[in-house]
């Protein structure tokens, strides 16, 4: 039976990259508006902000409705002379406040709020502030000294809402709060008969409240944005850690390790392969140590890609020796053929390099049988396979020949129908005695 054409070697590839660090983004805040300098980061912030705060946002708006209606009773009891006018103004305010309700509490409101949450809040804040300013103008027209300070309390409460509880960003809350302060003070000067001392007191209260409100608003938004960036860093670190673990062990073992479960497993059958780059030291003699390691890294990266494409799990590398397993961690019926196809592809990659002037040959040994696989260690964890099958595969590699793939009898039986296998004869294997081995030539 004539061997088929050699397995076509894949083009050299770069190994799967670990996800880039999000912390490489520009996380600086703009000095006044507190927006991120990075536009994509700013968009991500507002999307996350809306998702995280939609319930709080709805709660604040519902509270605004309740307080606006509840203060109607205060208007009637405290400002008896202007009660009718104030109630009419408050009714108009409630109409304006309720206009965006379908977009806030209706279906699909989350998607709307992700894009327009700040616009909604700004609209509601302006509507409420204008209405309260109008009512203050009405009250101050005939207010005595006591009423001036009662309305001052209302104005200070409005400022607290604008700066601290509304959720408005600093860039919006600042001009609105200052405008509301200026409007109230102007109403006190123009409409009320307050003395110069009372006006000075009102101005002092308003200025202090404005400064405190600005500081609180700025601090709250800056802290929220920094927490958002720290969350991105944590997500990035978690993703990179998981990517590193997935490079070290199968995904199922990563999940068990994270859950604190047992990460050792006995498999009734798996196929272990060892592949050694013969002549690597001689081939890299004229290279610097760094260049030699980079060459080895490129080869290992290609071997990893080949292994993944055939469903074979890389176990570890030891110098110029590559160890992999088929049927680990979950058993499979075609573990032998999968390992054989992978090692044939690896050999062809090395043959291509040899044809280009790099004097390398691949020597390999494959054995099939029971295997124990899992993770050991607590500080430096390592994924590995143990058992007689792994020992035999290692011995077959070390007792093999360059550019040849030596098979244990157990593996040869699994491959004889799909691959060209030629007997080598009896070989003295260290620690195992004499063993009848075979050469894997090609796939049929």
Describe this structure in words.
This protein is of the alpha+beta class. Helices cover 59% and strands 17% of the residues. It is built from 13 helices and eight strands. Helix 1 runs antiparallel to helix 2, helix 4 runs antiparallel to helix 5 and helix 10 runs antiparallel to helix 11. The longest helix is centred in the middle third of the chain and has 53 residues.
N-C termini distance: 9 Å
Question: How many structural domains in the coordinates?
Answer: 2
Percentage of β-strand residues: 15-25%
Gyration radius over CA? 37 Å
Helix content: 55-70%
Structural class by helix and strand composition: alpha+beta
In round numbers, the mean pLDDT is: 81
SSE ordering = HHHHHHHHEHHEEHEEHEHEE
Beta strand count? 8
Low-confidence stretches: 1-23
Give the overall shape, derived from the CA principal axes: rod-shaped
Number of helices in the DSSP assignment: 13
Largest sheet: 8 strands, mixed
